[in-house]
Amino acid sequence: MTDFTWSDLDERAVKMAKALSADAVEKAGSGHPGSPISLAPIAYTLYQRYIKHDPNDPKWEGRDRFILSGGHASLTQYVQLYFSGYGLTIDDLKYFRGGADTRTPGHPEVGLTPGIEMTTGPLGQGLSSAVGFAYGQRFERGLLDPNAPAGTSPFDHKVWVICGEGDVEEGVSSEASSLAGNQQLGNLTVIFDANHIQIEGDTKLTFSEDILKRYEAYGWYTDEVSFIQPDGTYKEDVAALAAALDKAEQVTDRPKFIKVDTLIAWPTPGKTNDESSHGSALGAEAVAGLKKELGYDPSVDFFVDEEALAHAREVADRGLAAHKEWDERYNAWRQANPDKAALYDRIHAGKLPEGFDEAIDKAIAAFKAGDKVATRKASGQVLNAIAEVMPELWGGSADLGGSNNTNLKGATSFGPSHDATRTWPESNEYGRQLHFGVREFAMGAITNGILLGSDTRPFGGTFFQFSDYERPAVRLAALMQIPNLYVWSHDSVALGEDGPTHQPIEHLAAFRAMPDVEVVRPADEFETAEAYRAFFEKKNTLPTAMILTRQGVPALAETADKAREGVRKGGYVLVDTEGEPDVIIMASGSEVQWAVTAAKTLADKGIKARVVSMVSMEWFEEQDADYRESVLPASVKARVSVEAGIAMLGTSTSAAAASPYPSRPLVSKATAHRTWLTSASPRNTWLKPPKLPSPKRRPETHGGCFSWHPPITNGGDMERITADRN
């Protein structure tokens, strides 16, 4: 609770924030000025009175986390970072939405601007990832200081959010908010800016529910502050806001949702409470009018009230004092808990635990060449082996734990103790088994927040087909370049009986097309184990998708021997020939077995075929040119690649997965390709996929979905199957 005071200097600082926001958008020629203008007193109050932060050390572990979910209102935060002394300058505000080197991009980007906790812009994801921040804080506290009274641990901090109507209209916020209420996340406070304006006009066009009752139903504490007075006048009543925040801070068993009724762009003449101020520059006349209302000279742009700025900068001194107090508690904790301190040092440095390799080796020792095991099952075995030595590893599934094999043996559920069930008899607030329900999008956003807000390592699983629901969160993870781990099983048309709704035929291509996402598709249990080893050992790991089979696939003798070194390189020679091969067959995942079978058949025909297991194109592209040339020599132009994925004749049908991956068409295609290369045929052509039953005929054995990819170049790029005999 604060002893709230509000001085003339505070009022002047808020006025300056409004004018700077208007000037920045006007100079840029585009942006969203309305919300930063009307949010200025709210953001200023938070940064000056409530958020625990140290501008001298933006990465201080003891800080509270603030997420501006409506990233389009980025100036709301940039101005406060400038006021607080985070290193932003008035020139940074002048360069708002500038070139690639700007520190004030149109939407906040983590890693670019000091004080920004996550990249926001796609509405709903900031609020949803904030739930993950709160998850991560609680779980990390449980790892390091579980028995400390509430509010006394150096690992106690709060998560603050400002969001708007667009955020709560997006479905992902409903998914995540429901989970937050179920989890009783008392460390999370959301301020909802209810300005009733969207691009197309008044929000009553599309948004009419009682938002407070909705959040009450989720299990949140709710309150409302209105800047619109009963007589219709407008007053930015920061004292009422502070009183509501103080009251909310006394609530520790629920997340908090405080609605603040505002008028967008107030007090801009002609633009207040109007959609034209939402997503466009106000225009010179309106900006001049705003400055007159604020008592400023309309002819002066980017005016800095030095006295008010100095007053606002005093927050840095308060932050430094809070940091010193935290240091005392932190050092006392270290002395009292040397083992926990060692754990903290390791996970904070991103180092793997002792016994990591041995844990994976132990899992591999139980594998046997020739066994037919689904890679999803192997994945579960490896994750459990790693979890035994890596306490910071936790995760779960979107209600598919048994199918994805993402359940951790012996783990308690993460949640209130009253959430224990028959299936999960133990539940506590520090449990490591996550349950997301049927909420893939929230799962992706929450695990993003966990990664950003803690030093722990989460994972989340679903069927590969339903990664479509999670895709926007994956893209945001890629933009932020954080090592989220996606366990996506049931990866192809081999689902058979479930039919086309559950068969992910275009998904491999879609995620490979997404920059900074690493797609990993192991062939068998040996490659699966090594894929996890490589993922956790990689430096600067990007979001990574483990693409796993539902059906059993044979553990290959070749991978048993070569996967340890080969998988980490993305692609490697699995089966080779004496001398230069006549043809190279590339495959990933469940199709590798058929490539190996085809190579043996081709050998019987006198054709030398090399098989390359292309576990991850992205990892392969990271290798040097010499290695890529050794795997895919440019001199071998006859190349065929095969995956159960893109280039389909149509969506599949429902049928048993008897044997959807025939090796015979692969043999004939490789033979035809080699024959064509040595013929006088035209140099450029398409190699058609093997003729399979039409999906319309509903085949009894499989759906007829099969992909024949063009060859991979030495750089790992996909290109049309063309060839030059010269």
TrEMBL record:
Q: Which residues form the signal peptide?
A: none
Q: Note how many cofactor molecules are bound and how.
A: Binds 1 thiamine pyrophosphate per subunit. During the reaction, the substrate forms a covalent intermediate with the cofactor. Binds 1 Mg(2+) ion per subunit. Can also utilize other divalent metal cations, such as Ca(2+), Mn(2+) and Co(2+).
What cofactor requirement does the entry state? thiamine diphosphate; Mg(2+)
Q: What's the top EC group for this one?
A: transferase
Sample GO molecular function, one term? magnesium ion binding
Q: List the active site.
A: E440
Q: Can you tell me which residues bind thiamine diphosphate? A: H72, G121, P122, L123, G166, N195, H278, F466
Q: In which residues is Mg(2+) bound?
A: E165, N195, I197
Region Disordered: which residues? 681-726
Q: What is annotated about its quaternary structure and interactions? A: Homodimer.
Q: What is this protein called?
A: Transketolase
Q: Which organism is it from?
A: Bifidobacterium bombi DSM 19703
